Amino acid sequence: MRTDEALRYAQSRDLDLVEVAAAARPPVCRVLDYSKYKYEQAQKKKTAKKHQTQVVTREIKFRPKIADHDYATKKGHVIRFLKGKDKVKVTIMFRGREVTHPERGRMVLERLVEDLGDLAQIDQRPNLEGRNMTMMLSPSKAVINGTWVPLGDRDDGEADDGDGVTVDGTAEAPAADGAAPEAPEAVVEEPAADEVEESEDAPADEVEQADDAPADEVEETTAEDAEVEQVEEPASAPADAS
User: Fold this and answer.
1) Which end of the chain is more exposed for a tag (fewer CB within 10 A), N or C?
2) With contact defined as beta carbons under 8 Å apart, do 17 and 6 qualify?
3) Contact call for residues 174 and 164 (beta carbons, < 8 A)
4) CA 120, CA 83: separation in Å to the nearest integer?
5) Dihedrals φ, ψ of 84, to 5°?
6) Per-residue model confidence as pLDDT tens digits over 120-151
7) pLDDT on residue 94
8) Acidic residues bias located where (predicted)?
9) Which positions of the chain have pLDDT values less than 50?
10) In the chain, how many H helices and how many E strands?
């Protein structure tokens, strides 16, 4: 059909002549309501986006000699990226002769993985490329499914965030906000009355035993002297007889 005839045909029905296959020979056109056609196409694209998962890769850089404060700040960014269901590329940058000690960069990455716990899973192990060591992290299945719970909010029967302190098997209640914790009272053990009496009587017993000891020795000495006298008396009897 000629173009002018197709236009008259569409206008007679209060519709539009829309080209749907421009590359075909001859081109293919349809007679339809163009506004309704655009709305249906927009709805199809919107439905297709719902079933698509857009993966965004973030990158954060560390140094092998990073300070603790900077490490904590960058770790917070990594946690935020993972909670947003984004992949994270962690890069250790070496400068100068630092590249001769790659184990220091690997220690930083291993520390990061240990601190993240079950929040992340490793997609790519630490790999040294030139002066950079990279590692890929992705959100764990619990984060993707929305079932991940921070360690401090878990009901494990133990206080992981330091709210309570256990002393001698008894859990102490946390102090009120703004109140200083009470210091434990000093316990002074007093000796029992029986112990005091025994300790006071002990020297007396010792004194009595010490006083009695010389008496025993005197009695033994007297007995020996008596035996000597008894022996000497028979010796004088024969002298009188003679």
Assistant:
1) C
2) yes
3) yes
4) 9
5) -80, 10
6) 889 999 999 889 999 999 988 888 887 777 76
7) 94
8) 187-232
9) 157-174, 176-179, 183-184, 186-188, 193-242
10) 6, 8
* Whole-number Å distance between alpha carbons of 175 and 164: 9
CATH for 1-35 (3.90.930.12, 3.60.110.10, 3.10.20.80, 3.30.465.10):
3.10.20.80
Q: Are the beta carbons of 94 and 133 closer than 8 angstroms? A: yes
Enclosing H/E stretch for 109? helix 102-116
What is the model's pLDDT at position 43? Answer: 92
Fill in the amino acid letter for 82: L
> Amino acid identity of 219?
E
Structure tokens at 238: 């024969």
Closest CA to 34 of 21, 20, 17, 22: 17
227 to each of 73, 218, 220, 236, 237, how far by Cα in Å?
A: 104, 15, 11, 15, 17
Range 57-149 has CATH code 3.50.50.60: no
Residue (of 158, 69, 82) closest to 116 by Cα position: 82
What is the Cα gyration radius of the chain? 51
Residue 126 φ/ψ, nearest 5 degrees: -55, 130
Question: Which residues contact residue 122 at a Cβ distance below 8 angstroms, ignoring those fewer than 6 apart?
Answer: 113, 135, 136, 137
